[in-house]
Design a protein that fits this description.
The complex is a heterodimer of chains A (101) and B (220).
Chain A (H helix, E strand, L loop, with lengths): L15 H6 L1 H5 L5 H13 L4 H15 L7 H21 L9
Chain B lengths: L19 H11 L3 H12 L2 H17 L10 H17 L13 H18 L4 H4 L2 H10 L3 H12 L4 H8 L3 H25 L23
Classes of the chains: A mainly alpha (101), B mainly alpha (220).
Chain lengths: 101, 220
Amino acid sequence: MHSGNSEHAPPHPIDCETAVRRLWDYLDGRLPEMTHGEVEAHLKSCELCPPHFVFAFEMRKALAASSPSLSVGDEARLRLRVRGALERVTSNGAHNADPRP
Amino acid sequence: MHITDQSSIASSPVPAPAGAVSRDDFERLTMPFLADVARFARSLTRDEARADDLVQETYLRALQGWHTFRDDADPRRWLFTVCHHVFLRTMQRDSRYEFAPDDDPELDSLVTATAHWKAQESGVAQILEQMDLGRALDQAIANLPAHYRGAVVLVDVAGQTYEEAACVLGIPVGTVRSRLFRGRRMLQDELFAYARDAGFETAKMARDPKSLPFTASKEI
């Protein structure tokens, strides 16, 4: 939502509690420009708050990297299994009680 | 535990069997997204066997509801919605299921930072630098209650926007935000617990609580 540095008046100073209340909104880029600038200015001047933001940022980055892999073989096997189940259900007209292959 | 072992979902009859032609149409439209659905299912379940069951049940349910699909709808998003519904229904029988309240998301941010402050003092916050996070995250996500897990997986793992996740989950954007913030807070707690179990806690003296620059006045 914010769009980079503002060239307007310096941001209104905020305390640590206000800054960390905005932690996730700040990292997700969902704060209005002025509010985003307030957090950014606080992080530049505060020694205590940046580690919390860094940890949260790193945790979110690790989550993004944790997307499960799916091998070509796994996908092919699953495709066959799903197609078989769909074929069974359309030919029988009902769910198979045990759709495992 | 297989989804189909315990569920009335898999054994319920299909009211109106789809014909061969519509199944071809269905497969043409939905099969290109099978890998995406499979990755989403694996993200939700963190278990390959359960994920495969979930994918199969998703496609069977989607075929059953094929007549409700609108031509202008996004089939990938529709499959994700069906997949999440099936996942929630199985989790409702799980003892870890709990309804997600729509609390104050900013308070969750505050509590997250407070927990990190304490973890810094005990040494467990170094987990991200010193441990392979893969297993820790698998376990942490698997321990998340279902409603929070959906929001975290869609936004943080699958990289969807709040708005896209809201469409998949069928909830307002504000509810995605509150579930996401609570879910992240719980994930962080799980990671710290994992680190403590792995012996990462050090014997540092606790910092004077008065030096904490903020307080979670209402623990939630």
